[in-house]
Design goal:
The protein is built from 6 helices and no strands. By secondary structure, it is mostly helical.
Length: about 130
């Protein structure tokens, strides 16, 4: 199991403060520090990870950054990780084509419930040919 101490993180952050480019503008300095520390954290942790775990760590770090910047919707992330959790085919629109199959159609119907994919079912069914 991977474990890193608070002191390790503090030292890494202190190094980031010392080595990152300086800027007199406070907002820009914070952005520089955030980017520098994130890259330093990624490189230092990946150095100690097994190759098979690096992709998962990269995904976890990326999703946390996106959530912190309010660029990732919880519903979309849940759909990406879990997929559909209910059967929408039973009471939803009919299959538009046989080649789609019920599992895929259920995924499309569930995806269309997310705000970013509003109208996807209509667009999909009108462009099947």
């Amino acid at each position: 199991m991977y474990q890193y101490s608070l002191q390790w993180f503090q030292k890494l952050f202190t190094i980031a403060i010392d080595q990152s480019p300086k800027n007199d503008d406070f907002a820009q300095r914070l952005e520089i520090l955030k980017d520098f520390f994130t890259e330093s954290l990624y490189q230092n942790i990946c150095r100690g990870l097994f190759e098979k775990d690096k992709t998962l760590f990269s995904f976890a770090l990326c999703t946390r950054i996106l959530k912190g910047d309010n660029k990732l919707d919880d519903g979309q992330l849940r759909y990406l990780l879990i997929g559909p959790t209910s059967d929408m085919v039973e009471h939803g629109p009919e299959l538009p084509a046989e080649w789609i199959g019920k599992p895929r159609w259920n995924e499309i119907l569930t995806l269309a419930t997310l705000p970013a994919f509003h109208g996807f079912v209509e667009s999909f069914t009108s462009n099947i040919s």
